[in-house]
């Protein structure tokens, strides 16, 4: 058993905008690239050119169809990685202390040299956010790019997780969710940021911004209808209207 | 205690900045190097295209440069075509073989070489090579991609979407996109959607399938495929009928006020050939561009009892017709009439009621100075979804007309061109096909016909080109018809060829209609046992399906091992506020015996002493492609790259700078020149822009012009079909030309001959992580999209008793496939679709033969024929747009039924091809640093 810190100085995490995520997987592959080359063991791929390719990814995008009671079905793209929970069950279940939550920023990490690859943490995580690396035999998970966000070898603007830096639609935001005045906290407050599966009691740090309501344009019809009042029933009437309308333009002759 | 970790590890030894080539978007990338190897790829923040972001493909480039499917050396075929049996040869032998085949053709019958390139980003160079070789048979892949969009844009307003222009993302408040799931303009569209959604702007997506951008659209219009033009014209009807159109804009900047000759349907012109308008001040005809003229949209002009009416009268007559009323089109479009009205009303509300002014003075081409610029914050984007129908050209024209009547083109908040666009038809060349053995072609292959006189046919009306481009079958085929080359060469119609030379085009698989038919055509033999297409040369970097069908393989490099230029002479990377171009350079050296294809072309040209490539005494002008990029001058002082000319300080025009590539590398691999503020909008009519463009060398003189709502070139073809002039269409095409070359957009259903009983539309899309990428053998990307079930809407699943994982037999008038299905609700209820080009042939791409792409993956291509079903008139009609010849991929109609006995694999199954590169490793742990 491993203990969690009573509290952390900051709560670094992600705010992910489900209204804007187009499901392009840019974050997935950028994460794969950075974390293959950096923190800990590379993210390996088994049978990468074969019948059942299966690699380690710290971030995946799932797509779900939603059928509202009224109107057309919708498709929601849902990126998922470790949510760096305040009450992280993956940490408390760890028999060796390899899984831990950092006091200074709340990031949940695995110390690979202490990880025995027992997989208990992956069972404990209700989000399926941890993946055992089949080649290395250690548990891999999102580090929130702990080797980028403080990295003095990177320009300051690049000290964000790889997934955030690369997201073309700007659907991923990074910051301190423990500070109510931070940009991410304000954004989450404005847009109704949600916890994922709050009933699990994990108190996730990452927040998801819900999709805005969709397919409402016909509801505006009463407002919009007067904008389309016909000016004429036929071509002749239209030309008559045109003459009058033109006279009101600059340079009009009437 | 918490472990101590290094939070500031060294990121890389060095960052090399070049241009991505994982798709056609051409983003800037930072390639992080460790120990001389590629360690990590990220977006370049300074780059005008992607501003730091990068898509999945771009980040997966690291798996592309180590791909086991990379070809290793030149190959000579030793087994029968299609077997994949090859022997590695030296470059000396490869070049000598190619020269041996080609040189005689150059000297005697250059048209017997057909040279076509696929996703080629060096078209200004490859066309220059083909022109100097002397063959008329050159084009790239636009004919089977999106020529309808490009051609309709140029003919209507001097440019289209993507590389021609973009929404004004900073100001637009309503963005409407048609037929786009992912796009050529990959990252900029995502960035733009993110930007406008962040400020609460509305996105409307029109697409039968609700994925990608349509999934995040605020409103989704799940239109019936092929009816986009009808929907658009219905909105035009509603807007015109309500008078919600920008009359001032139409009068000043379009040919709406230009008078149409009542006798000929051509535009009335003065003695200087200037189109005439009625001046509202004088009430008299005047050339459209005379200083001070105020064109009248309404006034007519009577001469000798004949009344000549302006274009706008003709538009009113057509579009006010109740045929285009929402109620009349709703059922065919699959969109309720109130919804059509609501969308039209919202377009008008945002364009007019949310109009705004930017305090920026500018002067138009008539000499009038405007104190402000008026913003109409509505913008559009469209691509293949509306193009790839046989009515696609007129549909694309209709979309441009919708933008124009709202006054949203080249204004703040609307759609904006990117240099060197806008560029009217008049500034483009006409097509050429005059062959002269041993000498260059008589002009550029591809161009924009102005009328029948520009057709490339002989006196008997027979096409000059192997693809029949610029013939009466498709007179405005401005990108050629790559999809017809192989079937025409097989049929010897219009003639037989000797050598087929292809670059980056997977024609025996996903880049052809009728893939199994194409395999047959490539392997067909004459009575004497020889191949009907005697010689095939192919260049590719990877072991694609097409490799097996060539006789000689010239292996290309990957994109990180080569020089390239993304040139203003070609398809540049400009932004609406700036001209820009870029290079690729070898950030790593190849570890195989491969060469950049463009350098190989130069070597071939030098060995053949091709004109243009060699001086009169046979001395080569350029040693390789890098040398060409720096030293070639298209016109004096104007070369492939606009930046750092002269001693490094000249832009656009300037002497050759031997240090130019180094300056690009120092600058991050690109060059940007910003457009002055006063010149950033109203570009076709803005004197400041026109002067700036001339200064940069984009044109030689200012070229202001009017948007062509009424297309006079089309009218010239139509008039020929009505029996006028020396060049008239053959009888069997007369009606078709008269109908489809209509100078004002109209909508017609596509030819449904043979479709009886086939009632379901079948489409394909490419996933975002693979769009325009020929890298789905990529180890990381194939884990995202390794399978492509047929997505079937809920209604059809129920009707046919299907459940997820079942197999369905899918039949078209042309063929049959049996494939796995999956239910999808967010889909037009009468449309099925799949991800394109996931399916691979066994033996290709260094994949295991049991890879899901090769066992369960499939292509819809087998269901699509390049010809329509026989009509019983003794003729075969191309499955193409009658205006441009664009391949009508999305007109496919099918029937589905549950497969009684599920097969082991998707049907049809093809025999495995021998892999020239073996298969990939069983495990990857790609960490290059210590």
Automatic annotation (TrEMBL), chain A:
The alphabetized UniProt keywords are: 4Fe-4S, Iron, Iron-sulfur, Metal-binding
InterPro entries attached here?
Answer: 4Fe4S_Fe-S-bd, 4Fe4S_Fe_S_CS, ET_IronSulfur_Cluster-Binding
- Give the matching PANTHER family: PROTEIN NRFC, PROTEIN NRFC HOMOLOG
- Tell me which Gene3D superfamilies the record gives: 3.30.70.20
The record lists the organism as Cribrihabitans marinus
List residues of the 4Fe-4S ferredoxin-type domain.
12-42, 73-105, 106-135
**Annotated protein name in UniProt:** Fe-S-cluster-containing dehydrogenase component
One Pfam family matching this protein:
Fer4_4
UniProtKB/TrEMBL annotation, chain B:
Compartments annotated for it: namely:
Cell envelope
Which Pfam families has this protein been placed in?
Molybdop_Fe4S4 (PF04879), Molybdopterin (PF00384), Molydop_binding (PF01568)
Keyword Cell cycle annotated: no
The record's section on Gene3D superfamilies has: 2.40.40.20, 3.30.200.210, 3.40.50.740, Dimethylsulfoxide Reductase, domain 2
Source species, domain of life: Bacteria
- Which co-factors does it depend on? [4Fe-4S] cluster
Question: Which keywords appear in this protein's UniProt record, sorted alphabetically?
Answer: 4Fe-4S, Iron, Iron-sulfur, Metal-binding, Oxidoreductase
Family statement drawn from the similarity comment of this UniProt entry:
Belongs to the prokaryotic molybdopterin-containing oxidoreductase family.
Q: What is this protein called?
A: Anaerobic selenocysteine-containing dehydrogenase
Q: Which organism is it from?
A: Cribrihabitans marinus
